[in-house]
Amino acid sequence: MKPYWNIKITVRVYILVLTIFTFFRIILFINEYGRLDETATLTNRLLAFFMGVRFDIVISGYILFFPFVALSILNITKDSLLVKRIIFYFIFILFTLAFLVCAADIPYFNQFFSRFSVTAFEWLNSPMFVLKMIIQEPRYWLFFILFVVVVIIFFKRLQHIFKSNELTIIKNKKWKFGLISLLAAGFIFLGVRGRIDEKSPIRVGTAYFCNNAFLNQLGLNPNFTLMRSWIDAMEEENKLVNLMDEKIAIQNTQKYLQITNPSQTLPISRIENDTVTNKHNYNVVFIIMESMSAAKMKRHGNAKNLTPFLDSISTKGLYFENNYSAGIHTFNGIFSTLFSYPALFRQHPMKESGMFKYNGIASTLKSNNYSTIYFTTHDGQFDNVEGFLNGNDYEQVISKEDYPFGKAPTTLGVPDDYMFEFSIPLLNNLHQKNKPFFAAFMTASNHRPFYIPDYFSSKFTDEKDKIVEYADFALSKFISMASHQEWFKNTIFVFVADHGSPISSKYDLSLDYNHVPLLFYAPEIITKHKTYSTMSGQIDIYPTTMGLLGLTFTNNTLGVNLFKQQRPYIYFNADDKYGVIDSNWLLIVRNDKFKGLYKYRNNNVTNYANEYKDIVNRMQTYAESNLQTFQYLLKNKKL
Fold it and tell me: How far apart, in whole angstroms, are the C-alpha atoms of residue 226 and residue 12?
């Protein structure tokens, strides 16, 4: 006799799914084991897994609550094979989807140092592109196979649970059954809420319990972060950045940008280089390097010598050693580098901005009689890059369909060095028009699925090291080929990364993901070499380049000419948080209002936010003023 069939089945399913969730967490832990440091004590590791069970109970409760209610009704009414099958497949299908998210979260976390969120679905406009990219990466197959095995085991165990618990209809003392079932439902609801405290249910910030950034995120369930990010994205106040009063933000930003006589219609617009007499029509080439974190370079402490070429030329130009990407996604890097605006959390400027016309570097140089061209290795439709750039004065966008058939071995298109080789005749053609050109390149090889051409031989055995060495080789090959062209001596090359890689993860924001190299290189033009220690960002590249050219232009961006103006801080974004940094302090502000102030230079994980509130206030005001000003410009189409 098993009168409490509803409770027994639910408890056994709970135990089963919590075990599977924990299994995925163990795989993530093993996969990211290198992120552990002295703060990851045994106690903290165990607490992270305990925290994980709490979040797993939340997700399990969401899925099991209604099946429990249905099972309870069956227990006091009439046994129905059809209803039991519906309940069985309801549980099976929803948990299968939850396990799929857990499997996808493992490589996602490795790439972004962030648990799975709604941002992962930005690729829905290019599903085949991303599907091919996943298929061509062998490592992703391992997680897919793991997912399939887990689902098969789950299906068989779920069948066993339903078959081994024989339903007995409650005929007597239904009030007692109802009371116990109601109490059980209350426990499920409490599990969904995650906390007893009446003020707030469990939140993402609940998982942050120690000074190890990885362990803080390990306890999260990726289904919870996905659900929470989707809810946040749907809330009206989150669709637009609302960090502070717009008028105050604009006034602050005008002061930061040293605008003394602002326009009433375009509040940050200012004329630059109008008094410069020495003007140059140099060719300009931007090379946006995929995932090239500063931490991969020898000059920034990497002992492997992964980037011998980039390291060598970094001492032969103007190098900014404290430069930061605006965001953590490629579209952030492209947009901020070419248009000098920051990343705004999850907003996608090349999709969500309604295809606005910006006064970016291509438009400015085109108005100065430059030819403009953009090169990418893969499908130009991904992230809407081709359409967006075509609408912003890029006369040509060279993408996968422009290369010879068979030259693209993966969904990321042709290898970097082939893109560069293919570009030389096109750049020569532009040069023959007897006018300067602006060219921008977006490399891709340093991104999974990794592809290394047979003709390249690496001294490394680790795949991640090999691909960085190859990416550096491709840069060397391009400069070598370019040096033999007529236009080389009259060209400024700008090297920057779209973003870095989360190699080190001391804090909620991985600095290695945003700390990227910035180099202005022109052997025949820049003869006095210098390293700058001032804070800088991708958003400064456009006005700084214009400063080298000396051409008069209207700067309606949040970028500054780094040769004339120093920043007190630079700010950057990571979907649900932002960072502000100077030579001593790193401030991290999360969407849940958490603030962390750290002495990052010596990897100190002590949070000084309460001790130095004035520093926090200055840094936060600086970042939020700039971000809010950009949101104002977007909203009012003042671009």
Answer: 26
Helix (H) or strand (E) holding 439: strand 437-442
- pLDDT higher than 50, residue 353: no
The CATH number assigned to the domain holding 454 equals 3.40.720.10
Do 124 and 62 form a contact (C-beta atoms < 8 A)? no
Under DSSP, the state recorded for 445 is: T
For residues 289 and 349, membership in a common domain is answered with yes
Same domain, 389 and 459: yes
Beta bridge pairs of residue 286: 440, 494
**Measured CA distances, 415 to 354, 471, 480, 539 (Å):** 32, 9, 17, 27
Write the DSSP symbol of residue 596.
E
- For residue 167, CA distances in Å to 178, 198, 433 come to 16, 37, 84
d(CA 192, CA 592): 19
Note whether residue 468 is domain-resident. yes
Domain tally for the chain?
Answer: 2
Do residues 562 and 448 share a domain?
Answer: yes
- Shared domain for 201 and 329, answered yes or no, is no
Report how far residue 110's alpha carbon sits from residue 96's, in angstroms, rounded to the nearest whole number: 22
Q: Which of 350, 374, 372 is nearest to 362 (CA)?
A: 372
**Residue labelled with tokens 């999974």:** 448
Cβ pair 358, 633 in contact under 8 A: no
Q: Is the pLDDT of residue 167 over 80?
A: no
Give the DSSP H or E segment for 521: strand 518-521
Rounded distance, CA 632 to CA 134, Å?
37
397 plus 334 within the same structural domain: yes
Q: How far is CA 413 from CA 6, 127, 520, in A?
A: 54, 16, 27
Query: What is the extent of the structural domain holding 16?
Result: 5-234
Classify 10 in phi/psi space as left (phi over 0), alpha (psi -120 to 50) or beta. Answer: alpha
**457-503 pLDDT tens trace:** 999 999 999 999 999 999 999 999 999 999 999 999 999 999 999 88
CB 487 within 8 A of CB 283: yes
How much is the pTM? 0.86
Q: Which of 385, 376, 341, 382 is nearest to 361 (CA)?
A: 341
What does the alpha-carbon distance between residue 492 and residue 614 come to, in Å, rounded to a whole number? Answer: 41
Residues 190, 87 share a domain: yes
- Looking at the structure, do residues 227 and 363 belong to the same domain, yes or no? no
Q: Which of 65, 105, 327, 57 is nearest to 226 (CA)?
A: 105
Residues 227 and 282 in one domain: no
Closest Cα to residue 440, out of 373, 359, 521? 373
From the list 318, 328, 327, 305, the residue with the least C-alpha distance to 472 is: 305
